[in-house]
């Protein structure tokens, strides 16, 4: 099991990658972000994006799925998140794109009241041209190693 | 049509509300955030949350849907977002909760290069007990009024 104590500042992790399909862009957007440039390829052509683009929240959701799968591979004792310090949607995500995730540990600190610790990390989603399409600074909580002094 | 020029600092908008169901918590989490405290009511009881909780990204997605519906009611010319300055998941969201959204305009500034403007707003999701469960500071882009000098 990978506990909070095992995260080191500067540590980088590849999160793996996922392919973006028009079908999934449309399905997510129709449910959660029904703006025309996310739900209607024809209307999207007339928008400032010049074509269908994924909801930024869909890119967040895919980043989360990659993160959970990577944590499972590492057997990391993640136990939720208090939030994000920032999120930037830097470039459009379009059907046919392939996004890879990578994360770097920026900072770690223990909880003063509970047997958990916090890790601040930067996460980037990068497309098949090497362009960063989304950059997030977020915080994840991990269980402390059993027996750790709190 | 509500253009960028029509947003005033301090302006508050109710986004309406939505009910949280176990079925939707599970469906979202199994697809995008498959951590046991989001996907497995029994495992969740053993977690630090003491029961099933919604993925924070699901709360974000619902906030977005309420925002899009509110923008549609106002006929607002929203045209995407460069990102968030912060997001905090402050309290667990559980099955049976009812979340209401509200947003306040913090700041507005025009693009120097395109016929759009930016609005920085604070969005809160508040549960049926009046507790803020999520607070976001985000930026939305709106079209400029036709004929506006850029």
CATH-assigned homologous superfamily of chain A = Hotdog Thioesterase
Based on CA inertia axes, which overall geometry of chain A fits? Answer: elongated
- Number of structurally distinct domains of chain A: 1
Helix content of chain A: 25-40%
Q: Main β-sheet of chain A, in a few words?
A: 5 strands, antiparallel
* Rg measurement of chain A, Å: 17 Å
Fill in the CATH topology of chain A. Answer: Thiol Ester Dehydrase, Chain A
Any low-confidence stretches of chain A, pLDDT <50, length ≥5? none
Q: Give the CATH level 1 class of chain A.
A: Alpha Beta
Question: In oligomeric terms, what are we looking at?
Answer: homodimer
Strand order, sheet with most strands of chain A: 1-3-4-5-2
Could you report the average pLDDT of chain A, rounded to the nearest whole number? 97
Name the pair of protein chains with the most residues at their interface, and give those residue counts: A-B, 34 and 34 residues
Tell me the series of helices and strands of chain A, N- to C-terminal.
EHHHHEEEE
């Amino acid at each position: 099991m990978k506990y909070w104590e095992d995260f080191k500042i500067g540590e980088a992790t590849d999160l793996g990658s996922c392919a973006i399909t028009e079908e999934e862009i449309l399905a997510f957007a129709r449910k959660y972000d029904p703006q025309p440039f996310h739900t209607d390829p024809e209307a999207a052509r007339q928008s400032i994006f010049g074509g269908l683009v994924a909801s930024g929240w869909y890119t967040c959701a895919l980043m989360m799925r990659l993160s959970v799968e990577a944590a499972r591979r590492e057997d990391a004792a993640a136990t939720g998140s208090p939030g994000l310090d920032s999120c930037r949607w830097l470039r459009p995500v379009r059907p046919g794109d392939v996004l890879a995730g990578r994360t770097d540990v920026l900072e770690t600190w223990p909880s003063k009241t509970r047997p958990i610790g916090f890790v601040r990390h930067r996460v980037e989603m990068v497309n098949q041209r090497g362009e960063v399409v989304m950059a997030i600074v977020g915080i994840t909580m991990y269980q402390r190693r059993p027996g750790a002094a709190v």
